[in-house]
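Figure 6 in text form: structure in, sequence out.
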């Protein structure tokens, strides 16, 4: 059993059977899930039929769309939501990973928002995703902050990403100068000739709602260039 939430520093709000954990009873973590059950189902995932059992027994029942914790509670949040939108109700994959509902975009958008809400301003969100059915780029558009770190298993389509909270998020992503002179940071979801940008407001630590701007109209800024402050060894790009 993990710690009480008043002292635990780590949250896994949809832990399932805790497959990604080395220590599945880590003393500093709270393991949550909507399910609490032991299921035996038929497994045909390796080309031969058999019965397998999965155990989902969280420390507390919870819905990642409405987490029962206060703001800035945890230093680390591990967000590993279901990634399947198509799976049989009695399939091994559905039992193992869970299944997203028809409103999965809204669900994940709320999940990201809640995970960042309970994350400490100096904390880190680790997000895990398998793009077997839904591409990562589509999912990242649902997050309010772009991830600065990613690890990708190409053959299996698995991704592990790390994101930072609030003011720290403003240090991630490429910076651009808009046609009207404003500076902005690139958010997840930019595609082709379109940039998805959050305008930087001096003295305001939170990203503003993203704007879609044509890439050809913007000027990329050096990574250390912000709010008109140009490092001495660099020249302004305009």
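Output sequence:
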């Amino acid at each position: 059993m993990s710690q009480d939430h008043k002292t635990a520093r780590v949250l896994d709000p949809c832990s399932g059977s805790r497959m990604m954990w080395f220590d599945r009873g880590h003393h500093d973590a709270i393991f949550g899930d909507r399910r609490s059950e032991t299921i035996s189902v038929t497994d045909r995932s390796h080309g031969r039929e058999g019965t397998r059992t999965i155990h989902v027994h969280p420390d507390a029942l919870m819905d990642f769309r409405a987490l029962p914790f206060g703001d800035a509670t945890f230093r680390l949040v591990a967000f590993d939501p279901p990634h399947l939108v198509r799976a049989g109700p009695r399939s091994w994959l559905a039992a193992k990973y869970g299944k997203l509902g028809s409103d999965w975009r809204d669900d994940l958008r709320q999940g990201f928002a809640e995970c960042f809400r309970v994350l400490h301003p100096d904390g880190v969100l680790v997000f895990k995703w398998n793009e077997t059915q839904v591409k990562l780029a589509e999912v990242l558009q649902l997050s309010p902050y772009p991830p600065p770190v990613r690890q990708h298993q190409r053959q299996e389509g698995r991704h592990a990403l790390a994101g930072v909270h609030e003011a720290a998020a403003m240090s991630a992503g490429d910076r651009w100068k808009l046609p009207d002179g404003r500076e902005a940071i690139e958010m997840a979801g930019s595609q082709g000739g379109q940039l998805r940008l959050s305008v930087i407001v001096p003295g305001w630590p939170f990203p503003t709602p993203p704007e879609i701007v044509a890439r050809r109209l913007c000027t990329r800024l050096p990574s250390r260039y912000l709010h008109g402050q140009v490092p001495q060894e660099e020249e302004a790009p305009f």
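Caption detail: The chain has three helices and 14 strands.
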